[in-house]
Amino acid sequence: MSLLSYETSQNMLDLLQVNSQRNQNVALSSSLGRVLYEDIVAEFNDPQFPTASMDGYAVIYSDLESKSIAILGDNPAGSDEKRTIESGECIKTFTGSKMPHGADTLIQIENVTVDGGKIIINESVAKGSSVRPIGEGYRAGDVLIKKGTKIGFVEIGVMAALNRVMVKVALKPRVAVISTGSEILDLGVSSDNEAQIRSSNNYTLAALFEQAGAEVVQLGTVGDDRDSIMQTFKNALSCADILVSTGGVSVGDYDFVKDIVPRLGAEVIYKGVAIKPGKHILVAQKDDRFVLALPGFAYSSTVTAILYVLPLIAKMLGRSSAYKTVEAKLSEDFTKRSRLTEFTACNVEIVDGQYFVNFRDKKVGSSAILTNMLQNSALMITGEEDGDLSKDTFVNVILLENF
């Protein structure tokens, strides 16, 4: 079996044309987790006028040399302050208030003593103290949030401050997920055969794809029956942008998926990549829809979903990348198990701003050990040309967070 290199497979995936122009308007309050389809541009300065950043007295800086300054009155937050102070005058001004005309400094309440209608200066401040200048936060025309950003709590706060009632977001790609194999039992189904195993792949991948911003169609499980798989795949492709299956792509007598995909009229882009785990992965395209057939073992299917499905979802959402890769230093020696590009579950720690990798509590075994990805794990990448690596070697690591 001829295998593509990992790098070639990723380049081919990146060249696939997807529909990334679909979008919709949603209420700001419903936009959490969605992906922006437009740049968010400031229409005005923030603040639009000099603003007090603390409670105090708005003064002319040169007057602070005086022992006392006369108080003209109060300036509560939200007031449209129109008064202009002259030398020897001040106005009590509160946090968030517009600074009175003529004032260039705010002296904090705790720096003065009030004596009748005057303030006594106990401790002076610098010129411009506690005054937010025009445009301190941003200027009109600034791009505050870029297209392709996944909306979080900060983005919602910034857009609310801009009075964005509605926001344009990328339409969620629809991903159908199915697990194949007669040995698999769905949740809640009673087992009468100890050789059967509980289905987890379809639930793992559904959660992963939802976290990445997709809408998931959960199709459950189907046994190793050619006609059943064929019909399920046809139904999925009628409603989904991406069909993801697990199992049935190897070389066994009951591995029907690899044969069914071409019969659906899909063009096989490639089958077989020199990676561990997941070398039997199949990627195909039918019109503007995609089929990704992944291996059946839990760790293997999850890793290949991250490497091959998440980039397609990201492209459809208009995002520049599907996950974050960082450089890290090995905290211990590493023994490479194959001549393929390997993706090894590891722990990542940050010490003095540097990422470090270790394999504490990670089990060495088959590609079925999904528990190796628990506890904020990451995936360490070692290439085909790499052999065993010694402590302090730098490696690339895929962080499994914030998809």
Descriptive report:
- With 403 residues, the chain is α/β, with parallel strands linked by helices.
- It has helices spanning 6-15, 153-161, 201-211, 226-237, 257-263, 298-317, and strands spanning 23-27, 40-41, 51-52, 56-59, 68-75, 89-93, 105-108, 112-115, 118-121, 131-132, 143-145, 166-170, 174-180, 184-185, 197-198, 215-222, 242-246, 267-271, 275-276, 282-286, 289-294, 324-330, 341-351, 354-358, 377-382, 394-399.
- The chain is elongated and about 90 Å long.
- The relative contact order is 0.13.
- A 6-stranded mixed sheet has the order 7-4-6-5-9-8, with no helix packed on it.
- The chain has 6 helices and 26 strands.
- It is 17% helix and 31% strand.
- The number of distinct helices, counting runs of at least 4 residues, comes to 6
DSSP summary, beta strand count: 26
Helix content: 10-25%
Task: Give the amount of beta strand, in percent.
Answer: 25-35%
Biggest pleated-sheet summary? 6 strands, mixed
**Uncertain segments:** none
Mean pLDDT: 92
User: Globular, elongated, flat, extended or rod-shaped: what is the shape?
Assistant: elongated
- Gap between N and C termini: 33 Å
Q: Structural class, from secondary structure content?
A: alpha/beta
CA radius of gyration: 30 Å
Order of strands across the main sheet:
7-4-6-5-9-8
